[in-house]
Structure formats: C-alpha cells, structure tokens
Amino acid sequence: MRSASFRSLVFILGVFAALPASGQVYPERIPSLVRVRAGQQGDRQRQNRGQNDRDAQTERTTRTVRVGANGELDVANIAGDVTISRGSGPDAIIEIVKTAHGQSVEDARTMLGMVQVEVTERNGRAEVRTRYPNGDEMRGANRRNLNVSVTFTITAPAGARITAHSISGNVSAHDLSGELTLESVSGNVIIMNGGRVAGAKSISGNVEITGADIDGALEASSVSGTVSGRRIKARQLSFTTVSGNLTIEDVDASRVELQAVSGNVDLIGTLSHGGRYTVSSHSARSR
User: Is residue 112 scored above 90 in pLDDT?
Assistant: First the structure.
C-alpha cells in the first residue's frame, strides 16, 4: 500500500507539472479540488447556481485557429469542462463560455473580467490557456477568491494531435483519429472512437475509453475512480486504479496489465493468441 500511495503522489505531481505556467492556480485551492469527486463537484455547482443564478453573468466568445489536418492543439483549463469533437476543414473552432456567480450582478461582471482565456497559434500549433489572477493581482483588487468557471466546446480537424487538461472539470474527446492525451485532476476523462490514444488519466474521477486503434501502448489510470475500456486494439494496454474498479471488454492486445489496489478487475472477451496478461487486485476480486 505504501508503494501505491507513492505512485499516487507521483501521478498528482506529474499532472500539475504538465500544466503550463500561464495556467495559474492558487496553491491553497488545490487540496480541496483533489478531494472533491466529479459527482460531488457537480452537486455543489448545481446548488450554487440555484442560490445565486440571479447574480450570475455569462460571457461567450468564439475563436477560430488554423492548425491544419495534422496540426496540434493544446488546451489547459482550471475550473470547467473541456469537450472536443471532430470538425471539418483545417481549422479548430473554440467556443468559450465564462460564467461567474457573485454577490451582485456588478460583482459577477467584475470577476468575469479578471479571468482571461489566451489563445495563441504558430506554425500549425495552437495553445489555449485559462488564466486566473495571481496572488498580487487578487490583493490589488481586494479579493480573496473568485467564483468563475470556463468551459470549452471545441471542434478540431480529425487528425490533429490533441492534448487537454482540466484541474476541476471533465475532459472528453469524440471521433478523433489523431493522438489524444487527456487528463483531469477532479473530473471524468472520456474518449469515444479515438484513433490513437496516448494517455487518459484522472485523480478523482472515472476514465472511460470506447473504441480505439493504437499502433503502440495505451495507458489509462485513476487514483479514485473506475477505469474501463471497450473495443480497443493496441500492442500493449496498461490500466491502473488505486481506489476503483477496472473493466476491460473486447480488447485485442499482445500484452495487457491490469492493476487495482482497492477494487474489482473484470476482463471480458476472448484472449489474444500468445498474449500476456497480468491481472491483480490487492483487496478485491479479479476474474
């Protein structure tokens, strides 16, 4: 169990290290984000909306960037969902919705202006970054916290290479054939019909991959959540969870590694001829 805890810590630090410096986060907020599961987070947000919808303010913008058929799109968010699906043409279309809940309409409008989304593009690569004010900026504005979320709904070229992160929010990708790397700290990670999935990780949330054809290795993991994979073809699969169940169904791989520290492991379907399978669960059943 000590080694599992160490791996969990390394994974958490790895997710934060992957986030860009421009995506600023308050250190005092990180522990609470990690502890709150995606479902609990959604319940809290719905309660907050019910209490102060009258003082909520929303800002919607759309950006179009040319990444090309085989370009790269890198998205890093702080609080809010990221949804990416297949588009047409060489452009990525990014719909940005910022929502603030304040003590008054004016307070909510002020908070909206303090959170910025930066979009840059160069030579077939586009970066999208959510920027919250740092500590000095917060003190200068005489504020202690912000209740602002940002959601991204993106259509991208089918073959583009996609990297997407969110600290508190779900991350999903649909019908994309390019390389996908999706991560969340507190939220679910969902990939449907992903041609090449390099990695899918969550700390507090479920990871689900349905439909993938990979000429290489696929890694999927969660610290606190279920991990499931269906209709996947790859040379190697490595699925792990610390506290949650693993379910793998209809996979074709020469090597499969499934590990749950505290949870059930289910491998459903026909085993590959000559394949190697390593299945372990420390405090539940494997079948």
Answer: yes
Provide the β-strand partners of residue 248. 229, 267
Q: Strand 148-156 relative to strand 91-101: parallel, antiparallel, unpaired?
A: antiparallel
Question: Taking the CA of residue 252 as centre, how many other CA atoms within 13 Å lie in the half-sphere pointing to its CB?
Answer: 7
| pTM for the model | 0.80
| pLDDT tens readout for residues 187-227 | 999 999 987 888 999 999 999 999 988 888 899 999 999 99
Domain locations in the chain?
2-205
Compute the chain's Rg from CA coordinates: 20
Beta strand extents in 124-254 (DSSP E only): 125-131, 148-156, 161-168, 171-186, 189-204, 207-213, 217-224, 227-233, 236-243, 246-252
Long-range contacts of 116-120 (CB under 8 A, 24+ apart): 117/61, 117/150, 118/22, 119/63, 119/65, 119/94
Give per-residue pLDDT as tens, 15-35: 444 444 333 444 334 333 333
- Helix, strand and coil percent figures for the chain, each rounded to 5: 20, 55, 25
Residue 55: both structure tokens together: 């003082």
Q: Are strands 82-86 and 207-213 parallel, antiparallel or unpaired?
A: unpaired
Residue with tokens 């492991």: 265
- Residues near 51 by Cβ (< 8 Å), separated by ≥ 6? none
What is the pLDDT averaged over residues 218-237? Answer: 93
